């Protein structure tokens, strides 16, 4: 395996990710998270995330270089997430990447975080089987996006995204309603295993938007979250016990149903028999199972990178830059800045 040696920096949310790749080969992928600190507040506090990135960056870069057994001087390029994400958090990574690239005299590639998630797939062992076009659904605490990827380096189209909460955020908020700790996704997943997914019929947000071409692939989870909160409240007001496992299972089913339905609808409408899953919520067993089961019935092949590449990380950022370099793309000029709403 050969290709450009790239160090990638990811600081768009609460993970400080440093990854090093040589072309499509993964050399290191270190992740420092301020999750423990954020947990005290029940969610990501932007200022805490930015400060944690500042503290974690240098030791993380050193650790990644050591793990990959490469020196800064050997790098062919530096890559960084310039957006979308939390403005202050992004700024720390962008500043560090510029300083590193300028001081080393290396080219710098500013890349899009969402496209980076898609690039994670090329670092998987069977990357040779990667084919385009593919539909990709990215589900995390910060985003819920459905994309059509015709070419990773030049043609990625956003089909739709959440109009309010991200799916992971909905898991975190519903967990709080149920008295479960942050981050709520894994807690709900665990509680749901003992529950009945058909116990309560919670709303599937924007599922009827499928009639409107414009918003067919948008998602909404705040109505679902409110519906769960109201259901639980009514139980409590009536002095009845809350069946936590059933609520968790029914809520999880509603989220999974809408994610998988829209993703497979996009595959069908665009005639694309491939679906890539990404983002931290992919850790959800039920989501993986339902996606695999329904995709098989629809003749769609599903790709799920290992979780360490699905959650926010620097390796996917480095991998995307390596692809851009291999495709002959010029590096970014230093004029770019952090852009919290950067489009794909
Ligand atoms: O990609 P990720 O690690 O980073 C951020 O978006 O910051 O995703 C974290 C999100 C959190 O909202 C967490 O509750 C959710 O992913 N999550 C899950 C599961 N594991 C993590 N959601 C549902 N089921 C899970 N098993
Ligand atoms: Zn992400």
UniProtKB/TrEMBL annotation:
Function: Required for the formation of a threonylcarbamoyl group on adenosine at position 37 (t(6)A37) in tRNAs that read codons beginning with adenine. Is involved in the transfer of the threonylcarbamoyl moiety of threonylcarbamoyl-AMP (TC-AMP) to the N6 group of A37, together with TsaE and TsaB. TsaD likely plays a direct catalytic role in this reaction.
Enzyme superclass (EC): transferase
Matching HAMAP family: TsaD
Cofactor(s) for this UniProt protein: Fe(2+)
Domain Gcp-like: 25-318
Organism expressing this protein natively: Microbacterium hatanonis
Gene: tsaD
E.C. code: 2.3.1.234
Positions of Fe cation binding: 113, 117, 312
Protein's GO biological process: tRNA threonylcarbamoyladenosine modification
PROSITE patterns referenced in this protein's UniProt entry, alphabetically: GLYCOPROTEASE (PS01016)
GO CC term (a single one): cytoplasm
The record's free-text note on cofactor binding: Binds 1 Fe(2+) ion per subunit.
Intracellular or extracellular location(s): Cytoplasm
A matching Pfam family: TsaD
InterPro entries with a match to the protein in the record: ATPase_NBD, Gcp-like_dom, KAE1/TsaD, Peptidase_M22_CS, TsaD
Family to which this protein belongs: Belongs to the KAE1 / TsaD family.
A molecular-function term among this protein's GO annotations: tRNA N(6)-L-threonylcarbamoyladenine synthase activity
Keywords: Acyltransferase, Cytoplasm, Iron, Metal-binding, Transferase, tRNA processing
Keyword Transport assigned: no
This protein's name: tRNA N6-adenosine threonylcarbamoyltransferase
Ligand binding (substrate): 138-142, 172, 185, 189, 284
Catalytic activity, as annotated: L-threonylcarbamoyladenylate + adenosine(37) in tRNA = N(6)-L-threonylcarbamoyladenosine(37) in tRNA + AMP + H(+)
């Amino acid at each position: 395996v050969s290709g450009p040696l790239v160090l990638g920096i990811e600081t768009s949310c609460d993970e400080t990710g440093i990854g090093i790749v040589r072309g499509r080969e993964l050399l290191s992928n270190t992740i420092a998270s301020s999750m423990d600190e954020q947990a005290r507040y029940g969610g990501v506090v932007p200022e805490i995330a930015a400060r944690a990135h500042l503290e974690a960056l240098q030791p993380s870069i050193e650790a990644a270089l050591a793990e990959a057994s490469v020196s800064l001087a050997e790098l062919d390029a530096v890559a960084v997430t310039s957006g979308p994400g939390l403005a202050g958090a992004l700024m720390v990574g962008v500043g560090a990447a510029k300083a590193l690239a300028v001081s080393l005299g290396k080219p710098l590639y500013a890349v899009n975080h969402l496209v980076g998630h898609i690039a994670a797939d090329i670092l998987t062992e069977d990357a040779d089987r990667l084919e385009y076009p593919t539909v990709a659904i990215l589900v995390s605490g910060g985003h819920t996006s459905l994309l059509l990827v015709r070419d990773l380096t030049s043609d990625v189209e956003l089909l739709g995204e959440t109009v309010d909460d991200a799916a992971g955020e909905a898991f975190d908020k519903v967990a709080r309603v149920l008295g479960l700790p942050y981050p709520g996704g894994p807690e709900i997943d665990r509680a749901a295993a003992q529950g009945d997914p058909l116990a309560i019929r919670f709303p599937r947000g924007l599922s009827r938007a499928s009639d409107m071409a414009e918003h067919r692939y948008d998602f909404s989870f705040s109505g679902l979250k409110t519906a769960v909160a109201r259901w639980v409240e009514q139980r409590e007001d009536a002095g009845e016990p809350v069946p936590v496992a059933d609520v968790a299972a029914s809520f999880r089913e509603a989220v999974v149903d809408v994610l998988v339905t829209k993703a497979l609808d996009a595959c069908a409408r665009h005639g694309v028999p491939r679906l890539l899953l990404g983002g931290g919520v992919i850790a959800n067993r039920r989501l993986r199972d339902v996606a695999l089961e329904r995709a098989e019935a629809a003749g769609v092949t599903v790709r799920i990178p290992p979780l360490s590449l699905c959650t926010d990380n620097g390796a996917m950022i480095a991998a995307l830059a390596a692809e851009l370099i291999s495709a002959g793309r010029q590096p970014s000029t230093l004029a770019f800045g952090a852009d919290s709403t950067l489009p794909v």
